Amino acid sequence: xxxxxxxxxxxxxxxxxxxxxxxxxxxxxxxxxxxxxxxxxxxxxxxxxxxxxxxxxxxxxxxxxxxxxxxxxxxxxxxxxxxxxxxxxxxxxxxxxxxxxxxxxxxxxxxxxxxxxxxxxxxxxxxxxxxxxxxxxxxxxxxxxxxxxxxxxxxxxxxxxxxxxxxxxxxxxxxxxxxxxxxxxxxxxxxxxxxxxxxxxxxxxxxxxxxxxxxxxxxxxxxxxxxxxxxxxxxxxxxxxxxxxxxxxxxxxxxxxxxxxxxxxxxxxxxxxxxxxxxxxxxxxxxxxxxxxxxxxxxxxxxxxxxxxxxxxxxxxxxxxxxxxxxxxxxxxxxxxxxxxxxxxxxxxxxxxxxxxxxxxxxxxxxxxxxxxxxxxxxxxxxxxxxxxxxxxxxxxxxxxxxxxxx
Length: 407
Description:
The protein is of the alpha+beta class. It has one domain (38-53, 89-255, 265-390): Alpha-Beta Complex (paralog of FGE (formylglycine-generating enzyme)). Helix content is 15%, strand content 16%. The protein contains seven helices and 17 strands. It has helices at 45-50, 125-135, 147-150, 219-228, 236-244, 319-325, 391-405; strands spanning 57-61, 64-69, 80-81, 84-87, 90-94, 109-113, 116-119, 169-173, 189-193, 272-273, 277-278, 308-314, 329-330, 349-352, 371-374, 383-384, 388-390. The radius of gyration is 21 Å and the shape is globular. Mean pLDDT is 83; it is low at 1-37 and 54-63. It comes from Deminuibacter soli. One of its GO terms (molecular function) is formylglycine-generating oxidase activity. Residues 83-388 form the Sulfatase-modifying factor enzyme-like domain.
């Protein structure tokens, strides 16, 4: 497996006035089988290669600072982490709602969560660049794939691909010239050498994307950033709860009376006929700058559409069946192991929220309950992330900051 560079939490008072190998398993039964059409990049990176394709202070850790902003909504006021919003604790019914729901979104089950902080937007290219500058971290897409690692994700006996194919790169969406079979994602996804977060679409470094979500980030890259920032990747349950914005039982993240023609006013999704004709009604071919659309009731932007977002959980199609058997689940962390019946040797992590490629006639995954799976070492140009922070962790940072200030 890839090595993740870990940056341990280190607190410092910067300035008082100015201011961070999965075991193959069998499915639980027929109900665990996923028959959904996937609008993700499909096969794992290994599979693709094998087949040729305002702040008064800052609380900081090593090289990173989380600005603290005054809280004017509560008494007594206390600082809160800038760029994040508070998601109050509570319980909700987690799982599929509506006709677009897939088998792995069921059964519905009750989940209880403690409150937590969540990034208001998807992480931007500008923010990720600060991380890279401070740490010199090298993302997975910038590294040459190692066959000894990749073959662990493939059926035994899979022949090694030509060395010419084992080059640094990532998955890129390429529209087709005409209507195609939507069950064959290989017609619009390709592995492109030289593609990475700086060059997400294979067109070279593009200026003006600083406020766009960073993409071509695999799960291990996202985790490295989160640890450096003193945060974490959200669990699936945290993500869905936050995406619903306190509005339980809705199929979408907006009013149910919104027509399909009006959906492009609510989120950055694909307009037209996927995957060959995009009318660009929303003005965007690919990603949009973060916060281009209205926030949900919690103040979170782009929870639906724009780019998929990594969650911390391993993927299994039968996760919810197991959770239902436990009764109300408190702060679930997901399964201990991954299992994907489509690629049983390749571990998968969960991504949520849909992307600019989602279309009502295709995957329609711009729904709070929609789940998708992706290999943790696979970057794609429609996948990014945002982070969370427990209140206990934030209070601890503030306490340590206060202790340092009093010395």
